[in-house]
Amino acid sequence: MPTYRWTKVTENAAFAPRDGAGALTFRDRMWLLGGWNPGDKVHFPKVCNSEVWSSTDGADWKLELKEAPWEGRHTGGYVLHRDRMWMVGGDPIQKHYQDDVWSSADGLKWDCVTDKVPWHTRALHYAVVHRGKIFVMGGQTVPPFAPEPEVFYSDVWSSEDGRDWEKIGDNMPWGPRGMIGGTTVFKDRIWILGGGTYDTPTTPSRNFYNDVWSSADGVKWECVAKSTAWHPRQYHDVAVFDDRLWVLEGYHKNGGNRKDVWHSADGVNWEEVPDTPWLPRHAASVFVYRNALWMVAGNNMTPDAWKLTRV
């Protein structure tokens, strides 16, 4: 079994603290997109902002754009496709749902691919790229933030170009869920690791999951594990690093924010990395970059950066 070690890169990066910021590794840089911090009215006058930051070492971060053309947001879908960075949907923080898709070839110039996706009126969805297509899965409406009827989704949509979308399945066996950060495409399959649902006025209890599902095409799904060694959670982050699946931090109603880190070669058997040195958090920004797995910012509301390497 491999062993890993965390290294603190910085506790005070140049960007203001935030959670839910998009995290993409593109053209040998880490890119941090937007984010949420309602307590900071200077950097987040509308609760979320549209800043674009980048870094080549995790310590020095450059503000590439103070205001990107897309509306400020967090916890959207963030993927790499056709040698571009993509932002797929957003959140309901501005009292409406962000039904748009944006892409960029350099992080500086952003193009609006569409301002009205057919799978609109949702947030907290999960997005991946697999076999040349962008997939959007699950999510829900969040009536406390934007006045729409309560809907919890368990559908799957796909698109080759981010503009034209096809609904390829509904009522998936993994049930309504979202609240998963990052992406996991592993062994030529899409993976769903845990997640949950957000509370609404008519459904006040959140759901928290620790199951594992995978699919070769987004239509037919296999339950790889009904329950795992890691505690159920939402607002966690997932990644593929060192030929393994990873689950990091997150939130559960019992105990709050978490700081545990788990990895698996098959989705069934999981091992924990002991003695995590960083603060508990959820909705962090996780990168796979230069032979390391990076943990940046999050709901600990500290602009820190850490990297994990194999010993």
Describe what you observe in this structure.
The chain contains no helices and 25 strands. The strands form 6 sheets. The chain has a 5-stranded mixed beta sheet, with no helix packed on it. It has a 4-stranded antiparallel beta sheet with strand order 1-25-24-23, with no helix packed on it. The protein has a single domain, classed as Kelch-type beta propeller (Neuraminidase), CATH 2.120.10. It is globular. The mean pLDDT is about 100. The chain is mostly beta strands and about 300 residues long.
Main features:
four-stranded antiparallel beta sheet, single chain, mainly beta, Neuraminidase, 45% strand, 25 strands, five-stranded mixed beta sheet, 311 residues
Give the gist of this structure:
The protein is mostly beta strands and 311 residues long. It has one domain: Neuraminidase (6 Propeller), CATH 2.120.10.80.
Mind telling me the CATH class? Answer: Mainly Beta
Name the overall outline.
globular
Number of distinct helices:
0
End-to-end distance, in Å?
A: 11 Å
Structural class: mainly beta
CATH architecture level-2 label: 6 Propeller
CATH superfamily caption: Kelch-type beta propeller
CATH topology: Neuraminidase
Fraction of residues in β-strands: 35-45%
Provide the low-confidence segments as ranges.
none
E-strand count: 25
What number of domains? Answer: 1
Kindly state the percentage of residues in helix: under 10%
Whole-number radius of gyration?
Answer: 18 Å
Largest sheet report:
5 strands, mixed
Mean pLDDT level: 98
Order of helix and strand elements from N to C terminus: EEEEEEEEEEEEEEEEEEEEEEEEE
Strand order of the largest sheet: 14-19-20-21-22
